[in-house]
Specification:
Number of helices: 14
Strand order of the largest sheet: 12-14-4-5-6-9-10-11-13
CATH architecture of the largest domain: Alpha-Beta Barrel
CATH superfamily of the largest domain: Glycosidases
Helix content: 25-40%
Shape: globular
Radius of gyration: 24 Å
Structural class: alpha/beta
């Protein structure tokens, strides 16, 4: 079974009993709803060197009539992933997708009495199922359990499906919390002792406002707890029939926006503790990253040693550099640009070139990351140089355009560049990436570091196959190693001191 395990201070996803990094792409929302539409998509995904496809499963199409299930789209996804030698992560578009209940079946949408909606502060119904209704929960749970039973039945031996996302970008919009009658009744009840123990915030009893005070922050805590409990029950029921790793993704809180303007109560950074307390059946809380400052958001989700899992990120030209950075710098399990099938020229996509390299070095990353021997770097015009000390050497990594003879050095805009560096012995490193220059300094007083040997090469079936011996102009007469902008390579570097 695919599963999450601890390895030192790292968490690893085991697939076929081997640590696995998801070099993924998420399909656009509607792409997986048609086998005909998907037919030309699979070759494109293969051209971009994905090892995993993150694909939606739609409640409305899976259960068009109550109690009558059609899982043919799921069957097709698993079949085609298998044919293309890829793994799958399934996204359950159930009660909520980007907060809205747009993927619930028609028989749920049209029976408002049985399946009530959330209300905003003015009492206006929203296109959002309330999490405070048992019928809503039970209908979703029944469908999700059916999905997990089916996946186990048709895939329990081959394990094409390696993880499941439960719901999508959960949160309340229109106001910070729902004001439907069941929500109001729950809000006036004492804060659950389970939550108070976890947060260690307040030993006093009382309702939500007594404990946390009045305001939208309290409203958001309340919704986060309520969403987490709802999702936990669904996930726990699904795991009882097929125990795959499960995660919940977050629509991030846009800076300057208030709860309800962004999806209030989702697993955003400041609510992660509430989600952990309310949803212990969820293995990972994951950010969907569409805002600038990648490192800021990654730092927030990798606090306390948590594994970083990026199920969705904006599909753009700099994703190649970002992928090298997150897999090197963090305990990152997944990287997945959104609407990956929209690539017009998949054979030349930067992320595909990065994935080609990352596929080769993944065994080294998962071997040496728990030992603290893997580093990642992301460089821009605002961050021209970074460094790290590894054993007896200090590694200084710079943007390729810092070289005055680099063709783009005088350009106004400098694209992001990045690399992963792996120390496999005290004097030996693999450098993989694009658009970087690396120099080495000795940490021993009175000593200098020199390049003893630099080989460009590839890994084939896990074995290093050296190509060019890089010297002279290719390593600046022994001063540094370089992977030029728009080139992608792996260089094996052996150092010495003199």
């Amino acid at each position: 079974m695919p599963r999450l395990v601890k390895a030192g201070n790292s968490t690893q996803l085991l697939v076929d009993n081997t640590p696995y990094l998801i070099l993924g792409g998420e399909l656009g929302n509607s792409s997986a709803s048609s086998n005909e539409y998907m037919r030309p998509v699979w070759p494109k995904l293969k051209q971009m060197n994905l090892n995993t496809v993150i694909a939606p499963v739609y409640w409305e199409l899976m259960e068009p009539n109550e109690g009558k299930f059609d899982l043919s789209l799921v069957d097709s996804l698993i079949k085609n992933a298998r044919l293309n030698n890829m793994k799958l992560v399934l996204l359950w578009f159930g009660s909520w997708k980007n907060s809205m209940s747009c993927y619930v079946p028609e028989w749920v949408k049209t029976d408002i009495k049985r399946f009530p909606r959330a209300l905003n502060k003015d009492g206006v119904q929203q296109e959002i199922l309330t999490p405070f209704n048992r019928d809503n929960l039970e209908a979703d749970k029944k469908a999700f359990v059916t999905l997990m039973q089916h996946v186990r039945q048709i895939d329990g031996r081959q394990n094409i499906v390696i993880a499941v996302q439960v719901e999508n970008e959960i949160g309340m919009l229109g106001s910070a919390r729902s004001y439907d009658p069941a929500a109001n009744a729950a809000f006036s009840q004492p804060v659950p002792e389970q939550l108070l123990r976890y947060l260690r915030k307040n030993k006093n009893n009382g309702d939500w406002e007594d404990v946390f005070g009045k305001g939208v922050a309290t409203d958001e805590y309340f919704m986060a707890w309520s969403f987490a409990k709802y999702v936990n029950e669904i996930a726990t029921a699904g795991k009882a029939v097929y125990d795959l790793p499960m995660y919940v993704n977050a629509a991030l809180n846009r800076p300057g926006w208030n709860p309800g303007q962004y999806p209030s109560g989702g697993p955003v950074p400041h609510l992660r503790d509430i989600w952990k307390a309310g949803a212990p059946g969820i293995d990972l809380l994951a950010p969907d990253i569409y805002f600038p400052d990648l490192q800021h958001w990654c730092d927030l989700y990798s606090r306390s040693g948590d594994a970083l899992f990026i199920p969705e990120i904006r599909f753009e030209k700099d994703d190649d550099a970002k992928a090298f950075f997150v897999f090197g710098h963090y305990n990152c399990l997944s990287f997945s640009p959104f609407s990956i099938e929209s690539a017009e020229h998949p054979e030349s996509e930067p992320i595909g070139k990065a994935y080609s390299i990352l596929r080769q070095i993944s065994p080294l990353i998962v071997k040496y990351q728990p030992l603290g021997k893997v580093s990642g770097f992301l460089l821009s015009k605002d961050s021209l140089s970074q460094s790290v000390t590894v054993g007896d050497y200090r590694l200084i990594v710079k943007h390729d355009y810092t070289l005055p003879w680099s063709p783009g050095s005088r350009d106004g805009a400098w694209p992001l560049t990045g690399c992963t560096i792996i120390a496999v012995s005290p004097d030996e490193f693999y450098v993989a990436g694009t658009g970087v220059v690396v120099t080495f300094a000795s940490t021993t007083t009175g000593k200098r570091a020199g390049l003893l040997r630099v080989d460009e090469g590839v890994f084939q079936n896990g074995k290093w196959i050296p190509g060019r011996r890089l010297n002279g102009d290719q390593n600046n007469q022994g001063r540094d190693i370089r992977i030029p902008m728009n080139e992608y390579s792996i260089q094996r570097v052996t150092l010495y001191q003199y």
